[in-house]
Amino acid sequence: MLDPIPELSFDSKRHLYFYKGEWLAHSVSTVTGVDITPQQRAGFEKYKHGPDGWAIRGQTIHDCLDKHLRGEPQIYDDKWSPWVETLLEDDLFKNVNLMASEYSLCLRNSSHSIGGTLDFLISYADDPTFLILGDLKTVSRKNAVSSRKAATEQLGGYLAMINQHWPKLYVSQCVTVVSGPEKCKVIEQEPDECLEAWRGALTRFDALQPDF
Fold it and tell me: Which residues of the chain have pLDDT under 50?
């Protein structure tokens, strides 16, 4: 297991990261969401809240995977069973060692002040050197699993942060896990592809920031 990054904390209520005595200005999702249109944002907000909204669904499924990887019991409403059971039965999560789960990271230098939380970093039990960085996405319908795109830029952001704080840690593969009712899909990508996508998103994001 990775030790927490010293002096980094996350305020869940404010959804802000605090590092070495100051609040970080942005999050990975802020950077990767630079291309989202106002109409798309309005759609996200429309279906976010409520007992069946994507916020509670995502929180519940993420929590179940986190506890599963840590070997802890999962407690959740039965209505989420079609998501949870299929997800946890996927071959990706069999015979693995946990390196990090729901792990706070940051990118802090003269140009950027960004925080983020990776979903999981695991290795194969029979090959501890093969590290897999993963991001979990949930969808509301089974037929939406196939069309869900990979979290390429987001994974690249976490990878850049890992490289800053753990330069000797080599990630072998990046994966996006899409969890839907009774269906789960794992999208595999090369780390360099994700890093390149993150750099592109960061460049577009920087271009939109005010020039003080």
Answer: none
What pLDDT sits at residue 212? 55
Q: What CATH number does the domain containing 193 carry? A: 3.90.320.10
Q: Which helix (H) or strand (E) holds 99?
A: strand 96-108
CA 130/CA 188 separation, integer angstroms:
14
Q: Does the residue 1 lie in any domain?
A: no
Do residues 118 and 157 make contact, with C-beta atoms less than 8 angstroms apart?
no
Contact 4, 165 (CB under 8 A): no
Task: Map tokens 């690249």 to a residue.
Answer: 156
Within the chain, residue ranges assigned H as helices are 28-32, 38-46, 54-70, 81-88, 152-165, 191-207
Looking at residue 156, what is its pLDDT?
98
Give residue 181's domain range.
8-207
* Count of structural domains, the chain: 1
- Asked, for residue 180, whether it belongs to a domain, the answer is yes
Q: Which of 129, 177, 130 is nearest to 149 (CA)?
A: 177
Stretch (H or E) spanning 20: none
Tokens of 26: 């942005």
In terms of DSSP bridges, do strands 171-180 and 96-108 run parallel, antiparallel, or are they unpaired?
unpaired
- The pTM for the full model equals 0.93
